[in-house]
Amino acid sequence: MKNAAESTRIAAGLKVSDVRDSGALALAEVMALFSAFLLFIKYLETTWFGTVQLYLVGWDYFAHLMMLAFPLALTALMRRPLSDLGLGRAQLCDPEARRISRVAAAELTAIWILFSLVPHLYEGKRLALLLPPFHFGERLGLTRHDTNLIGWLDTVVFTVVFCGVGEEVLFRGYIQGRLNRALGRPFKIAGVGFGWGLIIASLIFGLGHGFAYYNPFVDRLRDFCPNIGEALVTGLEGFILGLIYERTGGIMAPAVIHGVIGLFFSAMIF
Q: Is residue 170 within 8 Å of 30, Cβ to Cβ?
């Protein structure tokens, strides 16, 4: 009777997302979408498109656009609201999210500037922003100074806008949000409720970065060598961003903080 009632509700024109599904179904959907996205991106890396993109702009813009496109396409297909991705108008305009974004961005920027001015203990080097290769500027006939300027802007736009927004929509908005609705949020940290969605999304986020340099279309399995350190660091970062997502209910605050952290870690790690 319950299945018949649910079928009637769907037939009556209600959204598919109005019908509560199982955790197993939600997890299967998440893994299917993430696997499809990952294989699509890894395949493109082996084609002329991936080579030309990195040659011209230095960064993988297309992959991060797809982090937006895949969840948005599935959300539209399933007739789910944008609020399911943390992109609802109320979520993006939430005063608490704005306050957290401003405070965290200011603090992280201050730390970044401080580190960039202080010489490192290692050979007296200072912190510097990771720039794309110079070949894209040389290709356009730019001077070294102009290439540096464009490269700096290129890195800031890519890290803050594309990484910050793209990765947060996929990992926090879609994966974490989707699993939250199916599995609930039975746990709490400092008064912030969360569930297995946060844990699984953080795990996938960390492993995705740790395995980022392996391409199954060109690399042999025996050459598979994950970066455990990067997986642990980004997994912890994902957990913190996930808690911020749970507190604010949208991706604005996590995306802003993610972008600023990305600038800091691009300089620290690479």
A: no
Tokens of 263: 């600038």
The pLDDT tens digits of the residues spanning 183-199 come to 999 999 989 999 999 99
The domain spans of the chain are 22-269
Q: For residues 198 and 193, what is the distance between their CA atoms, to the nearest angstrom? A: 10
> Rg of the chain over CA atoms, in angstroms?
20
**Residue linked to tokens 């965290």:** 104
**What is the residue whose two structure tokens read 């356009």?**
140
Check: CB of residue 244 under 8 Å from CB of residue 254. yes
CA distance 200 to 117: 38
Q: At what angle do helices 228-248 and 252-269 cross, to 10 degrees?
A: 160
Q: How far is CA 2 from the centre of its chain?
A: 38
Specify the DSSP class assigned to residue 82. G
137: exposed, middle or buried (Cβ count in 10 Å: 0-12, 13-18, 19+) = buried
> Has residue 4 got a pLDDT over 60?
no
Is the CB of residue 262 less than 8 Å from the CB of residue 164? yes
Decide: pTM greater than 0.85: no
